[in-house]
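Reviewer 2 asked us to include a model.

Predict the structure of this chain.
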Amino acid sequence: MYKNLGIKFFAILQLLVLLSLPDTTMAQEDSVEVCIEYIAHASFRISYKNTTLLLDPYADKIWLGYNFPKGVVADAIFSTHPHYDHDGGQFRGYTPYWKDEIPFYQDTGDYSIGDFEITGFKGKHCDPYGKEFDQKNTIWKITVGDVTIAHLGDNGPLTEQNYTDLGAVDILLIAIDSQYHILKKDELKTVLATIGAKVIVPMHYRIPELETLADKPEDLGEIEPWLQGKQHVLRLAGNTYRFSKDAFDTNTQIIVFKHDERITK
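Predicted model (structure tokens):
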């Protein structure tokens, strides 16, 4: 009898210990990271759990001197505007490999894809470009895993309404190059200071390894001259990086990705 009581007491003690332990399942769920993968130019893939978004895929060798890697998959594509270096060339009548295979979105509104909550706000393509489609540019705000990402596309100076719509941003994907092709120097400075993102990811600049002629693409500079003198710059050895809300630095960090190695010229 005493032996059985001892066994029962030990079982109850084990149960109490288990109940006092933290919920490791929930802890693992909260620690899931958002993965950002840079393709090139203004194109990224963002993955969380089992869902992936593709942003601003470009057309092969139109203005840019290189191809879009074939076989890049996603659950949905979000494009900021109908330029060939942001919509796969569809506005020009090209048929990218993903057309009619992957859902494609370019208009403002609210969208839910897996755990992603995406909102498109009305912006305006920078002057003097994009007149052929009324300078349409959709600013995308993407929230997933408690991380907020904004992709500005080729937007010019932001309006007060744009800033209000965006709110707090953790990761800002923004066009920056040494010739200030999209945002002029003062415009860029204002946007960066006003948004105050925790991470700045430059995009839409000339990539010397892929574009060996200094004057092509025309009016598009490299990123290195702009980075000179900047603090808290992280140059990645590859084209992917994983983010989590609790891992952001107290200082604004500039992260420069390598391009996708599958790209051919």
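The chain has a mean pLDDT of 90. The chain has one domain: 23-256. We have added this to the supplementary material.
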